[in-house]
Amino acid sequence: MMVETDCPYLAPQKYRGGTNEPSYVVEIAKQIANTKGKHFSEIAEITTKNAEEFFGI
After folding, report:
1. For the chain, which has fewer Cβ within 10 Å, the N-terminal or C-terminal residue?
2. 2 lies in some domain
3. What pTM did the predictor assign?
4. What CA–CA distance (Å, rounded) separates 25 from 23?
5. Which domain holds residue 42?
6. Sign of CA dihedral 30, 35, 37, 38
């Protein structure tokens, strides 16, 4: 799983009405953690690792 915000007109609820931006991926990861019953840090670690492997960085 990776986290992204490529939908410019659908910002997370907290920022609704404004333009979406990459820094909001934190809000997406927080919601994933909440939904899965996991800590944010675990989701951040997993999604960062996946992105690094996928993009070879």
Report:
1. C
2. no
3. 0.78
4. 5
5. 13-55
6. negative
